Amino acid sequence: MSESIAGPATAREETILAQRTRLEPGVLGLPAVIMQGVALIAPAIAALFFVPFVVSLAGQNAPLAYPIGFAITAALGWVLVQFARKMPSAGGYFTYNSRALHPWAGWLSTWAFTFYVPLVGGPVTAYFGFILHGVLKDRYGWNVPWWIAPIVMLPLISAIAYRGIKVSQEVLVFFGVVEFLIVLALGINGLVDPGPGGFSFSPFNPSHIGSGGITWSGFGLAAIFAVQAYTGWDGAAPLAEETADPKRNVPRAVMWSIVILGLFLVIVNWGVIVGWGINDIAKLPSSSVLPGLVLSERFWGGAWWILLIAFFSSVMAVSLACNNVSTRMWYKSGEIGAFPRPFGHVHGRFRTPDVAIAFQFLVNIFSGLILGFAFGADLIFFFLTGLTLVLGVIFTYTLANVGVYFYYRREYPDEFNWFSHFLVPLAATAALAYLLYKSFSPFPASPYKYSPLIVGLWIIGGVVILAITRARGREGWLMKAGEAVADIEEEADREALPVPGV
Known about the structure:
By secondary structure, the chain is mainly α. It has one domain (about 25-400, about 425-485): Up-down Bundle (Amino acid/polyamine transporter I). The chain is about 65% helix and about 0% strand. The longest helix is centred in the middle third of the chain and has 31 residues, at about 245-275. The radius of gyration is 23 Å and the shape is globular. The two termini are about 25 Å apart.
């Protein structure tokens, strides 16, 4: 049965989805779901927090890493679209990979997913506190500890999430629009008011790579961080059960968020490099003040603090978006028994996964405060939201890239398309593999060189847990994972068939 991505949902499909979810169905429209993906990518953080590190790897060619990241992300997004148009589920990749490959693949996707959005909220709020501490101490002599920010922001984020998905998204949209406009203005300002070297397209000329201390290995790692910068584009998928017409709106939200942030990150990073000055680019990585703040004071004078508003808005928006994604994944896993059953509990009034929200709050405290105190708020931010995060999601993306081929060949042979279901996922997987190879040849400096070991041991641990579960004959719950969200279209067709004898 062929279905256009843009085709509207039938009333029967909407009714079936509403009956099958205990969350609040159909309350999110397309703009809110697009902003979920945009906010999860975190425009201000993605565009400005990583600039010194990416420039240290790629020099003036740092903006060139972002079109590469955009192309890979667009291919990955197209794969997710193929699943989302058939399986609108809060389980996201857990459901997709379970149904397409095997329940073990789905469970391992959730296991690897731990390095994705669940660990982001804590380090992001901690790093905002780190930046705020430096700025206030440098300018006013105020010694405000970094840990004040997560202590204030994390409970607020959880409280907003607890009140309902509609409230959460309204707050998210507000903060997301604020950060987007402010940071875009900064990037454009850099292009029209360039630093030493003037306006230039040279950041997009790859001939500079391989000279001046910039290696192809370093540029490969920069491209990996560019992929990381786009990470979050899939944030709409876990909100499918709460989205109106999810088969239509979730795929559209995924691709629109990629396109919007694709253009945004290229423009802003180009603007920051040109605004700083092509001729002075070697000084950027060693700047004691975040380059974005340096430029905001140069462009806006006494109104430089507006960029701090963008940072605060970005931290709030991305933390809310992460909370929405991770709690829906915990909820769906608990609902079918893949996680402890209490995770599947829904608040009677607000229809939010309250146990999952409470658990996520504890995860944020651990990743932001405990690890921040142990290793430093700045190091833990770059380590957990950088290469470690990317390695975790690459594992999940690769499973999905393989799974989409088998899923359509097996369940929708009439709709199978060699380009969409074979060539695109193959190209995305090959590109990720190549960039990973270049990133680790030679290995990056400590602690980033330990990322593969940590992620690898984590996944091996997940396999061991599954093996023990199977040996004890207790994997019945897991075998149902692929059936957790049956195809609504098929279910609607079955209900439409005449009943014998009636």
